[in-house]
Amino acid sequence: MEKLDSILSKLDGLEKGQNGVLSQLNRLQKGQEEFDNKLVNLQLGQEEFDNKLVNLQLGQEEFDNKLVNLRMGQEEFDNKLVNLQKGQEEFDNKLVNLQLGQEEFDNKLVNLQIGQDKLQHGQDKLQQGQDKLQQGQTALKDNLINGLGPYFEEITKHIDVKTDELRITLEDHEQRINTLSVRSIMQESRNNHLKKR
Question: Per-residue pLDDT tens for 93-104?
């Protein structure tokens, strides 16, 4: 009877031990499930972190591209600015040349005016000479009337020579004036052409 009680007691102890093991197994299984859930959450968090990192990298690349485009735009602007400065310098040089041409034209115009004044002065002298010749011719006629016929031919030749000299001088002045006039017209045409540019 005592042996039976001992066996029953041992069976009870074994059952209690088995129940304890089952309880521990249940707690272990719950811990494993909780660990698996945390691991899944960690993996999801890692994927989310990876996605954010990829998006960050894409954003960085987009920023780099925009920065490159900005630099290219700045270089293009700098090139246009340099070209604009070159164009301004070229315009200034043309303006200086135009001013120099205008000054040269003014100087030639002044010289032309001086030449015309000289021509007028020569024409006045020519007129005075012609008046004197007219007076001489009148005197010659008077002298011829008074008996100076032998000297008529010599005096006539002298008058012809003087007249030819005055005519040659006048033709030379007129040729100079025509030359200066042509040059003045050509210079004015070049100036107008430069202004149209």
Answer: 988 888 898 888
For residue 148, the model assigns a pLDDT of 52
For residue 103, give both structure tokens. Answer: 């000054």
Phi and psi at 157, nearest 5°, equal -60, -40
Q: How deeply is 155 buried, as exposed, middle or buried, from its count of CB atoms within 10 A (0-12, 13-18, 19+)? A: middle
For residue 106, the model assigns a pLDDT of: 84
C-alpha span between 188 and 180 (Å, rounded): 12
Environment class of 37 (CB within 10 Å of its CB; exposed 0-12, middle 13-18, buried 19+): exposed
The residue ranges of the chain whose pLDDT is under 50 are none
